[in-house]
């Protein structure tokens, strides 16, 4: 490990936060962290994890993009789930560069394709619209990013982190087998 800042991962390994290496990333760590990270910075009615969100997105895209969709937020296992209005603020360029570095190492490690295809982005927005309707407190404010996006006709049942972890891992194995 270099002298760069690093973080300890759930499995006991370490991740270099400045020069991440693909071999530092493990599916277990990603599933563990994403299942514990609550969407909307925790401002939803019940704990609803990034892992559960990712599984929903993976089920909305064509089969050949399903694993990429499952992993579309994998970098958040290391960066946290920074809310969209802050993440996309022009002052957050350094964060975006850092997150892309983490994401690039994850893409390399898991031999992923493009995590931001039109299909994955649209599925992500459909999930967001559904989550907003079902999991957030009633708000009168418009979310411009959701203009023209219809919520899905599914019922979301928030899970405890351990359940979300199992759901994420099961979906990963269903799509890729034993990694």
Topology-level CATH name:
Hypothetical protein af1432
Radius of gyration: 16 Å
Distance between the termini: 24 Å
Helix-strand pattern: EEHHHHHHHH
How much of the sequence lies in strands comes to: under 5%
Distinct helical segment count: 8
Form type: globular
What CATH first level would be assigned?
Answer: Mainly Alpha
Q: Care to count the β-strands?
A: 2
For the sheet with most strands, the description reads: 2 strands, antiparallel
Low-confidence stretches: none
Overall number of domains: 1
Helix content: 40-55%
Strand order of the largest sheet: 1-2
Structural description of this entry:
With 179 residues, this protein is mainly alpha-helical. The protein has one domain (6-168): Hypothetical protein af1432 (Orthogonal Bundle), CATH 1.10.3210.10. The protein is 47% helix and 3% strand. The protein has eight helices and two strands, in the order ββαααααααα. Strands 1-2 form a two-stranded antiparallel ribbon. A hairpin with a 5-residue loop joins strand 1 and strand 2 (14-16). The longest helix has 18 residues, at 93-110. The mean pLDDT is 94.
